[in-house]
Specification:
This protein is α+β, with helices and mostly antiparallel strands. The protein is built from 3 helices and 6 strands. It has a single domain, classed as 3-Layer(aba) Sandwich (Cytidine Deaminase, domain 2), CATH 3.40.140.10. The structure holds tetrahydrodeoxyuridine.
């Protein structure tokens, strides 16, 4: 039997059309992207997380001369959240980037490894994590949950 999978997401021309608290997340992600340690790719990624208690946590990509030892911004902030606040649920993760690695109008979409970690956050807390992705020309995509970004993930089917 053939089946079709559809996902729903919202697209905005600019993140400045988001509500105030989501805009704050985007600003915080841009702020932390300045702390990226990215001498090899010169691609500066920022990730911010809105927690259920109202707090915002942030992280940036951290590279290493032994390339695979580095870590993406998303995993930096999620592992920080998990280690500091293991019981606090995460409502939303927002990811932004600056650099020539991606054309200006392309959305920074989390890599497969980050999606896997984002998905486990969702499964672990038994609540959806919203995902906000912003391109360098401000285009914004909003997904309702991580599962939509990683269908048929290991252990879920
Ligand atoms: N990177 C992230 O931080 N997040 C992503 O979603 C994709 C890529 C980082 C890893 C590396 O430091 C640089 O961007 C280039 O791939």
């Amino acid at each position: 039997m053939e089946k079709i999978l559809t996902i729903q997401f919202r697209e905005l021309e600019s993140w400045k059309l988001l509500n105030d608290s989501d805009q704050e997340l985007v600003k915080k992600a841009y702020e932390i992207s300045q702390n990226a340690y990215a001498p090899y790719s010169e691609f500066y990624v920022g990730a911010s997380v809105q927690m259920a208690n109202g707090e915002i946590l942030t992280g940036s990509n951290q590279e290493n001369i032994a390339y695979p030892s580095g870590l993406c911004a998303e995993r930096v902030v999620l592992f920080y959240a998990g280690s500091q606040f293991p019981k606090t649920k995460i409502d939303t993760i927002c990811v932004v980037a600056k650099g020539d690695l991606l054309p200006f109008d392309k959305i920074l979409s989390p890599c497969g490894a980050c999606r896997q970690v984002m998905l486990e956050t969702e499964i672990r807390q038994t609540d959806q994590v919203r995902v906000i992705l912003v391109s360098q020309n401000e285009k914004t995509l909003i997904f309702n949950n991580v599962k939509d970004l990683l269908p048929f993930a290991f252990g879920t089917i």
